[in-house]
């Protein structure tokens, strides 16, 4: 990588000199057989496309420096599998013959006429394995996203694969998640400690494109202690963490969708609470809504809301108390 970086610096230098020294050099160039500039076999394209393309970026907000591809994994000359220009853009015979007056076979920009399937097929010819196995039936695949909706292959830094910048790429299309993740209680994505892809495989066909087959399995990859096994399970917890938590962010601490007692009273009775006795406040009626207004409410007593292991007292053990 370093070597190709230096190579490009030299190359740019050479071009600058070539420009200044004018026609004499241009004549020499014509005589010489074009050499590969970045990748083995790329001379068919780099005889015309060289670092001078960089001065006129074609994509409004990405500025692909065409030759910067030499500094990416796609520029590793030592690797026999490395693509050349034609592996992605096609042989483009017509384009070459007409000296750029017709389009290359595969053009990745949205304005280009190449259908999405053909653009993606160019990448998938080498990358259909691993994470991408489910691409065609993934939500993104079915929505006709192209690989280059997210990836910038010519840029030295591919924003979507860097922790600090990935979310920006997603937010271009996912405004609602931008809003959620910047709420007071959130997973540390904007802080750069984790990324959207910590939970999502955006090439995959799992539900909600999660990295695992279910929400719970995804959460357990980091919050193992919530998996149990517990002696007493709380049914909504084993069912779906998302019943109580909004994984991106909320205004309520602990990413909760609502505060106790309201959170609990979605399912548990508003107007009765058993064993209303000495330990419990003296309420006019045996009402959980009365209990809920006491201090921190339900969670003051039902502390092990994700599941309890207590075997001390069979009457309280199943109630997620210590
Ligand atoms: C004989 C010169 C020549 C050769 C050889 C050549 N091109 Fe081009 N190419 C051009 C010109 C001229 C343009 C139009 C100006 C521009 O957009 O930079 C162009 C434009 C392009 C574009 C942008 C098209 C658009 O509409 O945005 C791509 C992509 C491209 N060429 C890829 C390639 C590839 C890949 C090869 C090798 C297979 C290749 N070119 C070989 C001259 C050439
Ligand atoms: C790994 C696949 C791949 C390889 C290899 C590749 N390109 Fe590209 N090229 C793309 C994609 C994708 C874009 C769209 C912009 C981006 O993602 O950076 C693009 C954009 C371009 C553009 C700008 C026009 C546009 O559509 O935005 C030119 C010119 C170009 N490539 C020429 C080349 C040349 C010359 C080579 C060989 C040195 C080459 N490409 C190698 C995938 C590739
Ligand atoms: C001719 C084969 C080939 C084609 C076509 C190809 N790639 Fe690659 N790609 C590779 C190789 C080889 C590597 C480096 C080894 C690896 O990571 O597996 C790579 C690596 C990558 C990486 C990871 C880079 C890293 O730093 O780890 C991404 C992302 C990628 N390619 C995206 C694309 C996209 C998007 C396209 C289409 C525009 C594309 N590739 C087309 C062969 C190809
Ligand atoms: C919605 C945005 C998005 C789209 C669309 C997308 N990718 Fe990715 N890609 C990512 C992100 C994020 C990563 C890094 C995290 C990961 O590996 O899941 C990545 C990683 C990769 C890697 C390197 C990871 C590895 O396994 O080594 C390759 C290769 C790749 N993508 C190829 C593709 C191809 C091919 C397509 C089109 C079929 C595509 N991507 C479409 C966002 C995207
Ligand atoms: C070019 C636009 C675009 C970009 C960029 C993009 N997405 Fe999407 N994404 C979509 C569309 C379109 C859908 C389907 C409709 C919807 O749910 O909004 C979708 C759906 C999703 C879904 C829901 C999946 C499901 O099965 O319901 C997730 C999760 C997702 N995207 C994550 C991401 C992540 C993470 C990134 C960044 C790495 C990203 N997206 C980048 C367009 C995009
Ligand atoms: C902590 C794990 C986690 C992180 C980090 C995360 N997500 Fe999600 N995301 C989920 C889960 C779980 C769901 C499914 C929620 C559900 O079932 O309603 C989801 C759903 C989605 C959906 C579909 C929403 C819908 O209503 O169908 C989109 C789009 C999405 N996420 C985008 C993103 C983006 C963009 C990022 C990064 C800014 C991101 N996610 C980060 C876990 C996560
Ligand atoms: C990639 C690792 C990872 C995954 C996967 C993950 N989390 Fe987290 N989670 C974290 C980190 C890191 C924190 C922040 C801890 C801190 O700030 O001390 C956190 C914090 C939390 C918090 C406490 C927030 C607060 O305000 O302190 C809750 C609740 C939570 N996660 C729920 C979930 C749920 C539900 C899922 C599954 C949808 C999930 N997490 C998936 C890493 C992860
Ligand atoms: C019945 C609602 C509910 C469900 C379902 C639920 N949680 Fe929670 N979770 C809570 C409440 C309430 C808190 C706050 C606890 C407190 O304040 O003592 C919390 C706090 C957390 C915390 C941060 C504090 C801690 O205990 O580490 C994490 C992490 C967490 N939950 C993960 C999960 C995971 C993972 C799942 C799915 C396996 C899940 N939760 C399912 C209600 C729920
Ligand atoms: C999505 C619905 C739902 C939510 C929200 C919910 N629970 Fe539950 N909870 C249940 C179900 C279902 C059971 C099992 C009932 C049974 O076994 O009779 C249960 C059981 C319990 C039990 C044990 C009951 C017993 O008979 O052993 C307690 C205590 C409890 N929940 C407290 C809470 C608290 C406190 C909250 C709020 C933080 C809460 N629950 C939120 C559905 C929910
Ligand atoms: C002051 C402590 C305390 C508070 C506050 C409290 N509980 Fe309880 N809860 C208990 C005890 C103790 C039991 C076991 C009583 C028994 O089995 O006789 C119990 C039992 C339960 C049960 C099991 C009901 C059954 O039929 O067996 C549920 C459900 C429950 N509580 C939900 C809640 C909810 C929801 C809240 C908040 C609105 C709440 N509790 C607030 C102490 C408390």
Automatic annotation (TrEMBL):
| Keywords recorded for this protein, A-Z | Signal
Q: Where does the source fall among the domains of life?
A: Bacteria
Chain positions covered by the region annotation Disordered:
73-106
Cytochrome c-type protein NrfB-like domain spans which residues?
A: 85-161
The Doubled CXXCH motif domain covers 186-227, 234-271
User: InterPro entries recorded for this chain?
Assistant: Cytochrom_c_NrfB-like_dom, Decahaem_cyt-c_DmsE, Multihaem_cyt_sf, Multiheme_Cytochr_ET, Paired_CXXCH_1
Q: Which Pfam families does the record match to this protein? A: Cytochrom_c_NrfB-like, Paired_CXXCH_1
Q: Signal peptide span per the entry? A: 1-26
Q: NCBIfam families recorded for this chain?
A: decahem_SO, paired_CXXCH_1
PANTHER family listed in its UniProt record: DISSIMILATORY SULFITE REDUCTASE SIRA (PTHR35038), SURFACE LOCALIZED DECAHEME CYTOCHROME C LIPOPROTEIN (PTHR35038:SF6)
Name this protein carries in UniProt: DmsE family decaheme c-type cytochrome
Q: Which organism is it from?
A: Uliginosibacterium silvisoli
